[in-house]
Amino acid sequence: MSPVVLNLFGAAVMPWLVVGGINRTRSLWTGRRGPPILQSLYDVVRLLRKTPVYSTTTTAVFRLGPWVGLAAVLASVGLVPVLGLPPMVAFPFDFVVFAAFWGLGRAVLILGALDTGSSFEGMGAAREATFSTILEPALLLTVGALGAVTGDHTLAGALRIDPTSASAAVAWLVSVVALTVIVLAEGARLPVDDPATHLELTMVHEVMVLDHSGPELAAIQTASGLKLALGVSLLATLLSPLGRSEHEAAVVGVHLLLCGGIVVAIGTMESLIARLQFRIVPRYLMVAVIAGAIALLATTWQGAPQ
Amino acid sequence: MTTWVPASAWREALTDRVAAATPPSGHPAGRVVTLFGRREGDELVVTAVIERGGVLETLRTRMPAADGYHSMTEEVPALHAFERELHEQTGVAVRGHPWLKPLRFEGGGGQAAMRTYPWYTVEGRDVHEVAVGPIHAGVIEPGSFRFMCLGERVLHLEIQLGYQHRGVEQLLRSGDSRRLTPLVETIAGDSTVANAWAHALAIEQLAGVGVSRETELSRAVLLELERVGMHLASLAGLATDIGHLQGASTYGRLRTTVINTSMRLCGSRFGRSGVRPGAPAYAFGADQRGALQSALELLGRDVPVIDDRFLSDISVQHRLGGIGVVSAARAKEIGLIGVAGRASGQDLDQRVHRADLYPNLLPEVEPGGDCLARTRVRMREIHASLGWLRAVVESRAGWPRARASIGLLAPSSMGVAVVEGFRGEVVHCMETDASGALVHYKVQDPSLQNWLGLALCVRGGAISDFPICNKSFDLSYCGQDL
Question: What is B2-95's CATH number?
Answer without folding.
Answer: 3.30.460.80
